[in-house]
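Model the whole thing, not chain by chain.
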Amino acid sequence: MRAEVLKGHLDGLLLAALEAGPRHGYAVRESLRELTDGAFDLPTGTIYPALHRLERAGLISGEWSSPEQGRRRRVYRLTARGRRALGEERGGWTAFAAAMSAVLGAEPWPTTR
Amino acid sequence: MRAEVLKGHLDGLLLAALEAGPRHGYAVRESLRELTDGAFDLPTGTIYPALHRLERAGLISGEWSSPEQGRRRRVYRLTARGRRALGEERGGWTAFAAAMSAVLGAEPWPTTR
DNA sequence: ACACTATAGGTAGCAACGCTACGCAACATG
DNA sequence: CATGTTGCGTAGCGTTGCTACCTATAGTGT
């Protein structure tokens, strides 16, 4: 999978991974890898800056967990705005996928559902 | 539709538009707009550099048509390598779309086929 | 004891790509 | 004869994900 195809779609993926509940960055990464059977195996240099961007944008909020213990984890959860944004991402994806498939033709959707 | 979502997917679109037969750049642009009901209304500053890139890569070949007439048009056609590349683009799109939908869940494919 | 892997977070710099904003020209239409 | 459409082109920009690297703790193996 070429690298650039993900551009513009990552935010939706991260938001969706957090929809099921609060998670820290490393767990988000694992969720994506498992949900996609390894297709989205994103480097941490992709995950962490993206989470910071989403937090700055107010779509997720993070806080450090268990500071007394050694292992520091930053746990993120969707904000209300993030939940709205996720809805828009889903709509945008559907429109984009429909347009792509209209042009590419030929079995746009996986036939094995 | 945000701009970045197209990144990495444009080549496949252009190749697909040329699959039906040779076309000049402006016609490719119109094909994409019509096939997608206006969803992909790409600026010429996107189309032309991308076609040049594909030509340099040997996936399409272009030649000027009707030089004696005033209006100059550069007509592109798929090369053999371009046709192969289009097949790979289709496969890549299917894999990408499947992974995206696995994460986004919830009605990944348009229900109105 | 020591090495190694997995977990967990981070950043600087880069490359790629599509877009914006232009410019140029021929042809059609009113 | 002014405007709009067709048609091609490029320079420069902003965004984004990736590469490559760093730090640190916990667990596992030898």
